Amino acid sequence: MADPKGFPALLPEGWQALPFQPFRDGVEICMLWQGGPDVALLRYAPGASVPRHRHTGLETILVLTGSQSDDNGRYGAGSLMFNPAGSEHRVWSEDGCTVLIQWEKPVEFLE
User: Fold this and answer.
1) What is the pTM of this model?
2) Beta bridge partners of 31
3) Which residues fall within 8 angstroms of residue 29, CB to CB, at 6 or more apart?
4) Are 41 and 99 in contact (CB under 8 A)?
5) pLDDT of 33-62, one tens digit each?
6) Which of 60, 61, 64, 111 is the 20 to 30 Å CA partner of 102?
7) Is 94 in a helix, a strand, or coil?
């Protein structure tokens, strides 16, 4: 059995002191939980993007700061999105953002 893990004072700004690693060009990741579902923080630099991908399981995104856009719209801080299995999109942030993301299964990159 896995040990519980907590992040006291994660919000509103405690996440900023956590260690981030390069993920994609202009996007950094801080893994919070691995082993399905995975949970992480993604930090986008202004203008950064993630190419088109398909979800093989549910993805949940909560925008903490800035705004994140995808093929369906632009989402500011406090926005919560659900991308079900089978859905596809590309993601970008014009002004930079940090999101809390949870995914059940890895995505399939299409580009």
Assistant:
1) 0.92
2) 40
3) 20, 21, 22, 23, 40, 41, 42, 43
4) yes
5) 998 899 999 999 999 999 999 999 999 999
6) 111
7) coil
In a domain, 23, yes or no: yes
Specify the 3-state DSSP secondary structure of 17. Answer: helix
Number of domains in the chain: 1
With beta carbons less than 8 A apart as the criterion, state whether 89 and 52 touch.
Answer: yes
Half-sphere exposure of 6 (CA within 13 A, CB side): 2
CATH of the domain at 88: 2.60.120.10
Question: Which sign, positive or negative, has the C-alpha torsion 63, 67, 70, 72?
Answer: positive
Q: Within 10 A of 10 (CB to CB), how many other CB atoms are there?
A: 15
10 in a structural domain = no
